[in-house]
Each structure stands twice: as structure tokens, then as C-alpha cells.
Amino acid sequence: MAARPRFTSRATVLVLVLCSLVAILAYPTRQYIAQRSEINAQRARAEHARAQVEKLSREKARWQDPEFVKAQARQRLHYAMPGETPFISVDPAAPATKSSSADGASAPQAKAAQPWYASVWDSVDQADTTPAPR
Fold first, then answer.
1. What pLDDT, on a 0 to 100 scale, did the predictor assign at position 109?
2. Contact 99/105 with Cβ under 8 angstroms?
3. Are 111 and 119 in contact (CB under 8 A)?
4. How far is it, in rounded angstroms, from Cα 132 to Cα 134?
5. What is the 3-state secondary structure (H, E, C) of 44-104?
6. CB 22 within 8 A of CB 30
7. Cβ-proximal residues to 114 (8 Å cutoff; 6+ apart), any chain
8. CB neighbours of 109 closer than 8 A, spacing ≥ 6?
9. Are the C-beta atoms of residues 53 and 60 closer than 8 Å to each other?
10. How high is the pLDDT of residue 36?
11. Is the Cβ–Cβ distance between 111 and 122 less than 8 Å?
12. Cα–Cα distance between 20 and 24 in angstroms, integer?
């Protein structure tokens, strides 16, 4: 008796059809999975944006209240109502800086004490005298 072939022609055709189906469906399946992950990322971004809009809406509603605006003006701008005496306290525990020309610690104090236009002119003058890097 002759040896029977391991794969018949029908089995070979079936294997070829299955391999073709796998090859044909691999790319669309990969695209589908990539699109699903992109959709999920877009949904997360949309939810984050929605949360930001809600937060900003609440903040806007707070600023519509005149009492909140008054409180913010007092806190941030140090405004006072007519008849009140505004004051700013200085922290007594702040370390006093020593004036020494060697380490330049007095330079920030001197710049803070002079008007802004003097600071600008000093910086222009210092830029003019500083040697260029080589």
C-alpha cells in the first residue's frame, strides 16, 4: 500500500484560507484596537475639560458676589473701607542682613530702596561695563 499524504488537498486549502483570513483581518483588528484606545483618551480629555469648565464656572459665580470681591480686594490689594485704618505688620523674626561689600549681601537691599528707573539705569550701566564672554 502506498503511504497516504499527511495533508490532503482539502486540508491544505483550508489552512491557506485560514491563514489568508488571519492576514486580512490582522490590520483592521489592530486599527480597531488603536481607535478604541484613542476614543477612551478623548473621553478622558473631554471629562477633564468638563471638570475645568465646572470649576471656572464656580469661580466666576464667586466673583459675581460683591462681598467676595470686597474680601479679595482687602486681601490681595490691601484696600480698606472708608473710616478704617489699614496697616501692614512686619515680621520681627526676619533676620537682619549685614552690609558687607565682599559678599554683595547689601546689593538687594540697595536696589529695593531705589526707584525702578534707577535700577534700570544701573543694570544698563553694569551691562555696558561687564566684559563680553570669550
1. 62
2. yes
3. yes
4. 6
5. HHHHHHHHHHHHHHHHHHHHHCHHHHHHHHHHHHCCCCCCCCCCCCCCCCCCCCCCCCCCC
6. no
7. 122
8. 97, 99
9. no
10. 97
11. yes
12. 6
Identity at 84, one-letter amino acid code: E
Write out pLDDT tens, residues 26-82. 999 999 999 999 999 999 999 999 999 999 999 999 999 999 999 998 888 888 888
Here the cell at position 33 is 484596537
pLDDT given at position 7: 72
Amino acid type, 80 = A
Average pLDDT over residues 76-99: 79
Quick check: 32 and 38 in contact, CB under 8 A? Answer: no
> Scanning the structure block, which residue is given the C-alpha cell 539705569?
121
